Protein 1
Amino acid sequence: MKAPTTGIIGAAVGDIVGLPYELRADRTKDYNFELKLNDYSDDTILTVAIANWLSGERTEQHLRQNLLDYSLRFKDKNVWGRGFQAWFESGGTIDRKGIASNGAAMRVTAIGYASDEIGEVLRLAEMSARITHDSDEAVRGAQSVAAAVMLARKGNDKDTIRRYIESTFGFNLNRTVEEIRPDYHFEILCDRCVPESIICWLQGNSYEQTVRNAVSLGGDADTMAAIAGGIAASTPGMGVPPTLAQPCFDLLPNDFKTIIAMYQ
């Protein structure tokens, strides 16, 4: 199957590009790092789970079942955070109140395609976050990413999107990647990596530059590149290069490919 170059493929490619440089592997703060396209992680699995949820009944019950089904299907893949793994292994019975990590934000790209109404996008993003990351910080992270995707694909310029996210969510997006990089380190809290991921897109002139920006910060590389890459691939003129999209797409299960192709 031919790989799409726009849509939620951007999140999957960012995940695959960043995965070798996540903390458990060999972190980098080198913008010119080697592209190692070998595997995907929970970022892609849960992005597809959310996309599949949106194609059916948009209820909390259906969402919970999709997150559980996809997670349990890949439970032996060494990509899960301990807290989230405990949640899905419990059948979703563990209380996740107060969890503020970036798992809520990494998987929401498809929500930016679910509606042309910003209020509905924000509602769906909040629902998607609270089921496993029940905190205002996680909701803020998920909503800001989904809103950026929706606003970008509708043709809003970067300055308009920057101002909307800053005024709505209180993030400081007036920094540069070069200013952030020297002192940045591995962060999983939404408020400490979602704004930086968005900045990587704001400063990127192409899809590849965007994901390289994200990985070069030396943080949670696969998640940050998935977030930034998902926004980039929704931006007119910033599609994933076919030479990057196709080898990443070919790594994915066939049903993932079918779902990803629905969101372009």
Protein 2
Amino acid sequence: MKKVILFVLAALTLGACQESLEDRCARECLEFTKRKCPSAVAENMVIDSMTFVRATHTIQHYYKLTGVADRADGFQKDQAKELLKGALKNTTQVMAYKEAGYQFRYIYYSEKNPQTIYLDILLTEKDYQ
């Protein structure tokens, strides 16, 4: 009888330690933002933060454009979307989120005027499968 009780307690304890994919995603986004943001990802481009929207299962990346990149005429949305699709398809770091059908949103905004959004690209499961 003692063995059964110990087994049940062990199973409940291990089960309680499991975090959901949503909780994991929210935690990882917060940890990434705290540890690595802001940081330069390219010349004149800084990743500012990464967030998770539970309601839509969307991982959002915020990039601040600086210097010569901080201008509205410097982007071709279709070309940028294709580049992001290719990068997302080829990354294994977010495999669990891709398998669960999460969305990935990339927002590029101005350093001079943070309310100015140059690009806002949403990639869904059909984009990266």
Protein 3
Amino acid sequence: MPATTEARIDKWLWAARIFKTRSIAADAIKNGRVAINGVNVKPSRMVKVGETVSVRKPPVTYSFKVLKTIEQRVGAKLLPEIYENVTTPDQYELLEMNRISGFVNRARGTGRPTKKERRALDEFIGPSFDDFDDFDWED
């Protein structure tokens, strides 16, 4: 695991296992979801030891302090040597609140609700009025 003094940000994000592929990392950078020390960057920007990398993966913004610059992917056990997670606790609270809310904040166009979400919706709306057949209409 040779460490250099600098590494490309897209390669570093991939090597540090923050993104699954380098192309996904590059796309996130191009879309303005990655910042170094609060400044949006390009995929070719070099990252140095000690800099803080912020990655927006809605609804949370993760922050990482660079401890080692690498461009080759490493095993998950070695990640504590590569970066330090400095994400604020309120970001994790936001993630937990989003997980708990579930279908309530459903984005438009995300498809039909799942069976579980549909049942929760029906329970929220109230009793159904499907039993009109039992009603005596002649009274």
